[in-house]
Design goal:
By secondary structure, this protein is mainly α. It is built from 6 helices and no strands.
């Protein structure tokens, strides 16, 4: 929860991400080089929370999802514009900025 929200306080992370007892959907992002590890982790998580796997949930970037990500990760329109290049689309820029914020959290002490 800390990394997905790029926060250092778990209470704030839960509030920002919106995880509640009524939550119906979650996204699990894994960074590892081993396909076997990924499958083992996905199977474990699925056994704990149930539900179905949907690998395409991150492919669909609606306006609402973009606005939510901007709000959660405090991404400004100016920051987006400075990251855009001729071949870079909005989805790629948002992904890059979110990953950057999550990575920066690990470096903060």
């Amino acid at each position: 929860m800390l990394y997905v929200s790029a926060q250092r306080q778990i209470g704030k992370a839960f509030k920002m991400v919106g995880l509640t007892p009524e939550t119906k959907n979650i996204v699990l992002v894994l960074f590892t080089g081993s396909k076997k590890e990924v499958e083992a982790i996905l199977n474990y998580v699925q056994s704990m929370v149930g539900g179905n796997l949907n690998n395409q949930v991150m492919e669909k970037f609606s306006e609402e999802k973009i606005e939510n990500l901007k709000k959660i990760f405090e991404i400004s329109n100016l920051e987006i514009e400075t990251q855009k290049t001729g071949k870079t689309n909005l989805k790629e820029v948002i992904e890059k900025l979110v990953i950057e914020r999550v990575a920066l959290l690990a470096t903060q002490s």
